[in-house]
Design a protein that fits this description.
The complex is a heterodimer of chains A (212) and B (282). Chain A is mostly helical. Chain A has six helices and no strands. Classes of the chains: A mainly alpha (212), B alpha/beta (282).
Amino acid sequence: MDPTSAWGMVWRGIAALITLAIFSFLWRDNPVYKFIERLWVGVVTGYWTMLLYYTSFTDKVRVPIFEEGQWWYIFPSLLGVLMWFRLSKKYGYVSRYALAFYIGISTGVFIPLTIKTSILYQVQGTIRAIDPTWTGIMFGIAFLGILCSLSYFFFSKEHTGVLGVSSKIGIYTLMIGFGAGFGLTVMGRVALLVQRVIFLRDYGIDLLGGGL
Amino acid sequence: MAWYDRLLAVDRRWIYLILAVAVVIPAIWTMHIPVSLSSEVENVFERVSGIQDGKIMFLAIDYDPSTMAELSPMAEAILRQVFRQNGRVVLSSLSQFGPAMTDEIMTRIAGEMGKVSGEDYVFLGYKPYPAITILAMGTDFRVPFPTDYYGDRVDDHPMMAGVHNFDDVEFVLSLAGGNAADMWIVYGNAKYGVPLALGVTGVMATDYYPYLQSGQLFGLLPGIKGAAEYEQLNESPGDGLRGIPYQTTSHAVVLVFIVLTNIAFFAKRSAQRKHGMQAGLS
């Protein structure tokens, strides 16, 4: 749909009004904001329900079993049905069989790969030769920061002397990390605001410039 | 009431108003803010530059409309670059609210550049549980996606002949607004060894820099700044570069507030200490 066509302008107008209604919460909570909030929840729930029906139930249950005759899809489908027994007080325990199956598989796959990804590769990336380049120097500083940050969490000895100095450097390293995270968070939140401001501005220009 | 108490107890709506004014200024007054380039973004650009003349990359659009302000500029810049180079792209969308948005971006850009579904790109669509979907795609894209987003059989697309799994694409680039990024690192990179880069929101960026240093990622696009850098490298200004002046003015306001409230905080503490000493003496 052309955004400057009549229908395009109507839909964009609705989006602009909804945006302003959401922003009205900054002043105080109000019925218009509440209505739009509930509208959003309703739309999202409806969208997701239909999406799951067409991307999961249709693809993995209806078509394979009833149209293509792949009967072995019945077994995972039955495990899915077992999950609904959670709604029964008497037979709620039956859902645990399906859960056990699911947790068993996901844990078996996830744990070894997570150890590899988050521990082994990370340690490997941290312990390496420092070359005499600018990158090498930066890596050396980062490596020192890691050691000092770890020493901050060593509570078996009083933080005095060498441990006191290293834990002090460690806390400053952590603060730099938190600061970078905060700055990037501000950037992300402002980006959301900016997108809406640009949207409202462009809509206003199109409206006044003869979009309709 | 002392000046520092008034400053520390200021109604938050004044802050919203001042921030709104700071964001509106660049909307009225055009500003040019230079963007410095970082190696992690240049690495992504160089790898995407290699997707030419029929080569295939995998673009995972793993975000939804709530983070499109930061991530859509990246997706658009990358798709335009790949199509301009006559490269091809396989797409998936592992965020539940992302498929319709991905379809809108994909069809719009493909239409502008005269590209055809099945020949220049294939949009596989959405399946729940990113981890399971990525694991299955490592075997064959057809296992989780026997049909594409539009209901056409993947085998019917000429572009997918001989393209079965991650071994048949140059690399994976995931634009993620949630935990799909972790799933790609754990299941895509660690399990199948697929070369991986991420485009993430600003909030997430610091969490993924360690993976860059360890070599698990070959590149990273951090938030709107990453998008702006990419657009500059690609010489195609879009919403990323357009957003930088707004970012600059609003960050300046946030910095001023941080400095002012810190001054007020230390002034208050100093006054309390002085008051405490005087009370102790009397």
